[in-house]
């Protein structure tokens, strides 16, 4: 099984978004989850089957939307404290944009139009707004965006497909994605190409994903997660499917070279590749991420790209 993509507390996953409409959310939701009556054992759906098989762009998108709509509440309950309401964290290591400044030096974001892709509850966008930027938070999952409304703020929210951005050419100065969309789409080069289209000349796109080397290791935070268990070069998607064979979760693997070729193939220029080290202050485990593994192998890769 491949390494989990942050920040989902289960094998293979992250704030991934697939396809959908381009409607803007306009209503506030005050609670995380409505009470539901207890379910009997007979009502419980069978556990999905984990397998490796091909998955089309449409199937991947449909699975991502369903998975995130169904798991957004649990995710926000479990990880909301680490993410904060208005913090910009690039990955489970805890690298903060306030320190890293990968989008630009302190003070340089004021007045800039910024698109956040795979925004979840829009924590990063709130941080951007506090820096004086004009962010737009986009996500595939309606339920994740309801959590953004629950937390509040004035950030515009858009429910849409990262591969078909509902914006005019040259609408933004910057784009960013902290584990959003790219691990879950069958054709990530199309997402990068769309981002380039909506960026203005001189714009920057910074995105983080699970470090590709993790695909070869089991998704375990302890010593058992330190031995290679699969081929790094096997690009067959990781799929969880229901009893009818329908994908309910899909994650696509790209090698480090594949990611670079996606960036270049979309017409962007790679400026930097950041591999955050695990900091001493971070003692928590998050899925397969842990201090033990983080001190030995990289967990996150951050690509800093420019639109010339």
What are the salient characteristics of this protein?
single chain; 308 residues; alpha/beta; 8-stranded mixed sheet; 3-stranded antiparallel sheet; globular; disordered N terminus
Straight-line N-to-C gap: 38 Å
The count of helical stretches stands at 7
Spans of at least 5 consecutive residues whose pLDDT stays below 50 are 1-38
Mean pLDDT: 88
**Rg on CA atoms, Å:** 18 Å
| Coarse morphology | globular
Helical proportion, percent range: 10-25%
In total, the number of strands is 11
Strand count, sense and barrel status of the largest sheet are: 8 strands, mixed
Strand content: 15-25%
What is the topology, as strand order, of the major beta sheet?
Answer: 1-5-4-3-6-7-11-10
The topology string of helices and strands comes to EEHHEHEHEEHEEEHEHE
Estimated structural class = alpha/beta
Biased composition (Polar residues): 53-63
GO molecular function, one term: methyltransferase activity
Pfam family, one: Methyltransf_11
Region (Disordered): 1-68
Please tell me about this protein's structure:
- With 308 residues, this protein is an alpha/beta fold.
- The chain is built from seven helices and eleven strands.
- It has helices at 57-83, 97-100, 123-130, 142-151, 188-198, 256-265, 291-294; strands at residues 23-24, 49-52, 113-117, 134-139, 157-159, 172-178, 199-210, 238-241, 247-251, 269-274, 300-306.
State the gist of this model.
The chain is an alpha/beta fold and 308 residues long. 24% of the residues lie in helices and 20% in strands. It has helices at residues 57-83, 97-100, 123-130, 142-151, 188-198, 256-265, 291-294; strands spanning 23-24, 49-52, 113-117, 134-139, 157-159, 172-178, 199-210, 238-241, 247-251, 269-274, 300-306.
């Amino acid at each position: 099984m491949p390494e989990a993509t942050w920040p989902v507390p289960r094998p293979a996953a992250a704030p991934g978004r697939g396809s959908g409409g381009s409607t803007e959310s306009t209503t506030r939701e005050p609670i995380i989850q409505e009470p539901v009556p207890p379910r009997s054992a007979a009502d419980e759906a069978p556990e999905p089957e984990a397998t490796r098989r091909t998955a089309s762009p449409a199937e991947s998108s449909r699975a991502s939307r369903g998975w995130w709509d169904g798991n957004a509440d649990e995710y926000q309950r479990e990880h909301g404290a680490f993410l904060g309401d208005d913090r910009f964290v690039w990955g489970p290591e805890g690298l903060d944009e306030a320190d890293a400044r990968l989008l630009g030096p302190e003070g340089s974001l004021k007045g800039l139009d910024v698109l956040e892709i795979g925004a979840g509850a829009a924590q990063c966008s709130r941080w951007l707004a506090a820096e004086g930027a004009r962010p737009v938070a986009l996500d595939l999952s309606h339920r994740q965006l309801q959590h953004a409304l629950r937390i509040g703020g004035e950030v515009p929210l858009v429910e849409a497909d990262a591969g078909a951005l509902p914006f005019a050419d040259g609408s933004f100065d910057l784009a960013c994605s902290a584990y959003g969309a790219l691990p879950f789409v069958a054709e990530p080069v199309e997402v990068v190409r769309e981002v380039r289209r909506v960026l203005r000349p001189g714009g920057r796109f910074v995105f983080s994903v699970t470090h590709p080397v993790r695909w070869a290791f089991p998704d375990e935070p302890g010593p058992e997660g330190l031995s290679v268990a699969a081929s790094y070069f096997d690009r067959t998607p990781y799929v969880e499917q229901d009893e009818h064979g329908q994908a309910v979760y899909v994650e696509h693997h790209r090698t480090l070279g594949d990611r670079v070729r996606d960036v270049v193939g979309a017409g962007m220029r790679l400026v930097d590749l950041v591999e955050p080290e695990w900091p001493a202050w971070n003692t928590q485990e998050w899925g397969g991420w842990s201090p033990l593994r983080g001190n030995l192998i990289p967990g996150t890769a951050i690509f800093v790209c420019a639109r010339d």
